[in-house]
Structures are given as C-alpha cells and as structure tokens.
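Good day; I would like, with your permission, to put a structural problem before you. What I wish to show you is a protein chain and, alongside it, a tokenised description of its three-dimensional fold. Thank you for your consideration; the sequence and its tokens are set out here:
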Amino acid sequence: MVKLTQIMFCSDEFQAFLKNPKLRECLRKNKEVVYDLLGSHGDRENLVLVAETLSDYSTVLQVDILSCDSYHRHVNPFHCVVFRI
C-alpha cells in the first residue's frame, strides 16, 4: 500500500520538475499531448497543475466546468438542464 508521505513526496517532486525552464518550453510546445495523456489517465489534478504552470487558464476553467457538469449529471440530472437554457 502506498503511504500518504510517498504520494506527497511524488507530488512535491513533480511540482519542482515543472519549474524547470527547459521543461516548460517543451510542455508549451506539446501541451495538447500532455493534456491528452493526463486526461486519459483521469489525472485531473496534475492536468490542472500543468495548465496553471503554462498559464493556460482556459484549460483550467474547461477542466473545472467539465468536472462540475459530470458531478451534477450524477447527483442531480436536472441541474445542467436548468443552467443551459
């Protein structure tokens, strides 16, 4: 079983990795591939982290909106209908 401290360490390590200027340039050039990869694994948290690192706030909002829509479709199917009129 993975311990919470190991997860936190990996998360911190990934955040430090994203601060590398050379990596940021590579991410910027290939952001759609990175987004697709993270999205296909359901890794919403790191997808948002990468988008924020690249100052790609439209993607951050898009992920949040899709997550909200998905949540409300399961909890209250009429919520999304009301707000889409």
